[in-house]
Design brief:
Helix 2 (about 40-45) links the parallel strand 1 and strand 2 (about 55-60). The longest helix has 16 residues, at about 250-265. It is built from 13 helices and eight strands. It has helices spanning about 15-25, 40-45, 65-75, 90-95, 115, 145-150, 150-165, 170-180, 185-200, 210-220, 225-235, 250-265, 280-285, and strands at about 30-35, 55-60, 80-85, 100-110, 240-250, 270, 280, 295-300. The protein is α/β, with parallel strands linked by helices. About 45% of the residues lie in helices and about 15% in strands. It starts with 16 loop residues before the first helix and ends with a strand. It has two domains: about 1-115 and about 225-300, Vaccinia Virus protein VP39 (Rossmann fold, 3-Layer(aba) Sandwich); about 120-220, DNA polymerase, domain 1 (Orthogonal Bundle). Strands 1, 2, 3, 4, 5, 6, 7 and 8 form an eight-stranded mixed sheet that branches.
């Protein structure tokens, strides 16, 4: 399925797009970095206000996302440069284009809807998929490698640290017992083991495997370290008066963003545009369930 991403019928709705557009107005000649281009929804929104002298630089570690964004943004008047790269390398990639400073850096840290249903990615427990979870196939270690080769104590620590899962020790114990009999190679297998370990969820509650799957995805893709690198490189990359906006979807990410912005405020580098994170309205959540856990923080370079 992932081979022909352009034909994907899954439409990714950009989260908090209207709110972002209300908060940030770009000049027609702005240079914008969309660090997680995805299907290009956020960039399309801002790109419509850019003239031929404006530039969008879009990064994504998913090559399929680059192809989808290319289609979506092809009719914009501004220049669009799409790069297959992790956003941890944002400064390097922008400088390669001969650009020193930018007006706006945006990152939507959520998983794209098309990625969740892509059976090669192995990100979802809703279907039985290979237990992979790599956004970029050049990454060596898969989720199956971690599940089958990590010792019980380290596995429990990983699930607790990156998934904030209180039943991490019990889940790790059940995983280790199961893999003694046979390797765990699919998302369905793993979800079933976790459900046995902590019981099935009540109606309306999140699936019992949600936090463990989050932990594995973060570990496989080194997501938190990469986010920190993006945030650390942003102050030098932003023009005076430029904005950085980050949309996060769980407390680990939000905490990193909050602390980074706070430190940069204390150093007189940023001023906060959002004193508290902006969350989606009920109306937005009703049409896009992904938005229910989204938090938007914005800072401006002073």
């Amino acid at each position: 399925m992932s081979d022909d991403a352009n034909s994907s019928t899954v439409e990714h709705i950009p989260v908090l797009a209207k709110t972002l557009a209300e908060q940030i107005k770009l000049p027609r000649d702005a240079v914008m970095v969309d660090a997680t281009i995805g299907q290009g929804g956020h960039s399309l929104l801002f790109g419509r206000d850019l003239g031929p002298e404006g530039i969008i630089i879009g990064l994504d570690i998913d090559e399929n996302a680059i192809r989808r964004a290319q289609l979506k943004l092809k009719d914009l008047a501004c220049k669009v440069i799409l790069i297959h790269s992790n956003f941890a390398l944002v400064s390097e990639q922008v400088h390669k284009q001969g650009i020193e400073e930018v007006d706006f850096i945006l990152a939507d840290l959520g998983v794209c809807s098309a990625q969740l249903v892509d059976e090669e990615r192995g990100l979802s427990f809703q279907k039985n998929m290979p237990l992979d979870m790599r956004f970029d196939k050049s990454i060596k270690t898969t989720a199956a490698d971690i599940i089958n080769n990590t010792d019980e104590k380290s596995l429990a620590e990983l699930i607790f640290r990156f998934g904030e899962e209180r039943a991490s020790r019990r889940i790790a114990s059940f995983i280790v017992e199961h893999r003694k009999r046979q390797p765990i190679t699919t998302t369905g297998q793993l979800a079933m083991i976790i459900a046995k370990a902590i019981g099935k969820s009540e109606k309306g509650r999140i699936h019992p495997a949600t936090q463990t799957f989050q932990a594995l995805r973060i570990a496989v893709n080194n997501e938190l370290d990469n986010l920190q690198k993006l945030l650390d490189s942003a102050p030098k990359l932003l023009k005076k008066g430029g904005h950085i906006a980050i949309i996060s979807f769980h407390s680990l990410e939000d905490r990193i963003v909050k602390n980074n912005f706070k430190q940069n405020v204390e150093r007189n580098i940023y001023k906060l545009i959002t004193k508290k994170p902006i969350e989606a309205t009920r109306e937005e959540i009703s049409v896009n369930r992904r938005a229910r856990s989204a938090k938007l923080r914005i800072a401006q370079k002073i």
